[in-house]
C-alpha cells in the first residue's frame, strides 16, 4: 500500500477510526509530518486537533541514546536504567532537560500561539504520526498523553514496520496501522509525495481546525447554515498574486482586512486568533499576504509602507467587488508596519474604509498623511511597550478622526502575556461592531 500524500493517508486512516466518532476524542499530531495526517482524522471525526509535543532527553555524550523524554505541563519520563548505565549525574540531567524544555516551549508558542492546549483529562486520545521507523517519538508521545490525563490512548499511523508495531503495543491501549510492509527502509518510500511539512503549514492546519465552519471559539454553533464563504483565495494586486483566506458569515456586520507587519503573513497565529473572535461576533475577515514569498526575503520591502498601502488598497477594491460586500462597510486591522500601511491607505482620498484597529502599530511610519485619516481609529498598545506606546501617543495627537488609545496593562509588544491577546480581540471586536455594524443596519 502507498499513499498519494499525507492528506490522503489521513483520509484513509480516518476510515479505520470512524467508530470513535461517538466517543469524547482528541486527535494529537506529532509535529511536523503527523499534523497533516491528524488534521484529516480530526475533521472526519469532528474532534479537536492539537499537537503532542515531546522532546527526547539524550545522554550528554550519546545524544542519540534516550535517557527519557519531556512533555508539556512539566511531564517528565526518565529511564533510570540508561541514566545509571551512562553515569549521568543530576547536574548533567538538569542541563539537558533545561535545554530541551526551552525548545519544547518555543515550539508550543510557535504552533499554538495564544490558543490553550486542549485538555486530555478523561478523554480518548488518538496520537498520530505520518509513519513510524523506530517508534521512539511515538512511544514518548503516548506516555506524555497518559501523564496529561488521557483515559485511553490509541496510536494511529499509516505505515510502520511489523517489529515497531509489536514494541509499541505496550505504549498504547491500541495501535492502528494501515500497512506494515517488509522489507521496510524508510517512511517516505510509501508516499508518492513526502515533501517536508513546514512550521507554517502546521500553524495553518491548527488554525483551521480551531475555527471550523459554523462554530464559535467556545465550540457552540453560531448559525445553522454555516458561513457564506470560508475559503482560500488568490488576490491580484497589479502584477503580483497574493494568497489569502476569506471568511464571511451569513449577513456580516462588516468586513475586516488584516494587514500583517514586520515580515509576518496571513498565517500569523495572533491575527488568526483575533480573526476568529471577529467571526464569532458576526464580522467577515480577509487575512492575506501583503508580500509574495520572494518579496518577503528582501527586508526593505517590510518597511516600504507605500508599497504595502498600495497592496492593501488594491485588495480592498477586490473585496468591495465581491457580492458578500454589497452594502457592508470595511475595516482594517493592522499590526506593526501593517498598521502604518492601513493608516496610509485610509488617508487616500478614495479610501473606502470606515474603521481601523492598530495592534502594536507603528503609526509614525504612516507619514504626514496621518491627519487625513477619516476612519474611526483605535490604537492598541501594550503597557510595557514603552517606545511604541510613546509613538502612538504622538500619533493620537495628529489624528483628526474619531480616535482612541487603549493600553493593555502589563503587555509587551507581541501581547504574549496571559490574557493580553484576549484583551486585544475584545477591544477590536467592540470597535468594529460599533463603527461598521450601524451602517449595515441602516441599509437593510
List the helices and strands and how they pair.
Layout: H1 6-17, E1 25-29, H2 34-45, E2 49-51, E3 54-59, E4 62-71, E5 76-78, H3 80-85, H4 90-112, E6 124-128, H5 136-147, E7 152-159, H6 162-168, E8 174-179, H7 199-210, E9 229-237, E10 240-248, E11 255-259, H8 269-280, E12 284-288, H9 293-296, H10 299-302, H11 305-320, E13 330-335, H12 337-346, E14 355-359, E15 376-382, H13 386-398, E16 403-408, H14 420-442
Keywords for this structure?
444 residues, 16 strands, five-stranded parallel beta sheet, Rossmann fold, alpha/beta, disordered C terminus, single chain
Average pLDDT: 86
Number of strands: 16
Alpha-carbon Rg, integer: 24 Å
Runs with pLDDT <50, length 5+?
Answer: 212-225, 439-444
Say which CATH homologous superfamily of the largest domain is assigned: Alpha/Beta hydrolase fold, catalytic domain
In brief:
This protein has 14 helices and 16 strands. By secondary structure, it is an alpha/beta fold. The strands form three sheets. It has an eight-stranded mixed β-sheet, sandwiched between helices.
Describe the protein.
Residues 212-225 and 439-444 have low confidence and may be disordered. The protein has 444 residues and is an alpha/beta fold. It has 2 domains: 6-199, Rossmann fold, CATH 3.40.50.2020; 214-442, 3-Layer(aba) Sandwich (Rossmann fold). Helix 8 packs across helix 14 (420-442) and helix 11 (305-320) packs across helix 12 (337-346). 37% of the residues lie in helices and 22% in strands.
Amino acid at each position: 500500500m502507498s499513499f498519494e500524500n499525507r492528506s490522503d493517508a489521513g483520509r484513509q486512516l480516518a476510515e479505520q477510526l470512524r467508530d470513535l466518532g461517538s466517543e469524547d476524542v482528541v486527535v494529537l499530531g506529532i509535529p511536523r509530518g503527523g499534523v497533516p495526517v491528524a488534521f484529516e482524522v480530526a475533521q472526519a471525526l469532528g474532534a479537536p486537533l492539537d499537537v503532542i509535543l515531546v522532546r527526547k532527553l539524550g545522554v550528554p555524550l550519546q545524544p542519540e541514546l534516550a535517557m527519557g523524554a519531556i512533555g508539556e505541563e512539566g511531564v517528565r519520563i526518565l529511564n533510570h536504567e540508561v541514566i545509571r548505565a551512562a553515569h549521568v549525574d543530576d547536574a548533567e540531567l538538569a542541563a539537558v532537560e533545561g535545554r530541551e524544555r526551552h525548545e519544547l516551549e518555543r515550539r508550543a508558542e510557535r504552533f499554538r500561539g495564544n490558543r490553550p492546549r486542549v485538555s486530555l483529562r478523561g478523554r480518548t486520545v488518538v496520537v498520530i504520526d505520518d509513519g513510524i521507523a523506530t517508534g521512539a517519538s511515538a512511544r514518548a508521545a503516548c506516555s506524555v498523553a497518559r501523564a496529561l490525563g488521557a483515559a485511553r490512548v490509541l496510536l494511529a499511523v499509516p505505515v510502520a514496520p511489523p517489529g515497531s508495531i509489536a514494541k509499541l503495543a505496550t505504549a498504547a491501549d491500541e495501535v492502528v496501522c494501515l500497512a506494515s510492509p517488509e522489507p521496510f527502509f524508510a517512511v517516505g518510500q510509501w508516499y508518492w509525495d513526502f515533501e517536508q511539512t513546514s512550521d507554517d503549514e502546521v500553524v495553518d492546519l491548527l488554525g483551521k481546525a480551531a475555527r471550523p465552519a459554523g462554530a464559535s471559539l467556545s465550540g457552540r454553533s453560531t448559525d445553522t447554515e454555516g458561513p457564506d464563504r470560508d475559503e482560500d483565495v488568490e488576490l491580484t494586486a497589479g502584477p503580483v498574486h497574493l494568497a489569502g483566506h476569506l471568511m464571511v458569515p451569513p449577513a456580516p456586520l462588516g468586513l475586516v482586512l488584516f494587514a500583517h507587519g514586520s515580515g509576518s503573513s496571513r498565517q500569523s497565529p495572533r491575527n488568526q486568533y483575533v480573526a476568529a473572535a471577529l467571526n464569532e461576533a458576526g464580522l467577515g475577515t480577509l487575512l492575506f499576504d501583503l508580500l509574495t514569498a520572494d518579496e518577503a526575503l528582501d527586508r526593505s520591502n517590510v518597511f516600504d509602507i507605500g508599497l504595502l498601502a498600495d497592496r492593501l488598497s488594491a485588495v480592498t477594491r477586490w473585496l468591495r467587488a465581491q457580492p458578500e460586500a454589497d452594502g457592508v462597510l470595511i475595516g482594517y486591522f493592522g499590526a506593526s508596519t501593517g498598521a502604518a500601511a492601513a493608516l496610509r491607505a485610509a488617508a487616500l482620498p478614495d479610501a473606502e474604509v470606515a474603521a481601523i484597529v492598530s495592534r502594536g502599530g507603528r503609526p509614525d511610519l504612516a507619514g504626514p498623511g496621518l491627519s487625513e485619516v477619516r476612519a474611526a481609529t483605535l490604537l492598541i498598545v501594550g503597557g510595557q511597550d514603552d517606545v511604541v506606546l510613546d509613538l502612538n501617543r504622538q500619533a493620537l495627537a495628529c489624528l483628526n478622526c474619531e480616535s482612541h488609545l487603549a493600553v493593555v496593562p502589563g503587555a509587551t509588544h507581541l501581547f504574549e502575556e496571559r490574557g493580553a491577546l484576549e484583551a486585544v480581540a475584545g477591544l477590536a471586536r467592540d470597535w468594529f461592531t460599533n463603527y461598521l455594524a450601524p451602517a449595515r443596519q441602516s441599509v437593510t
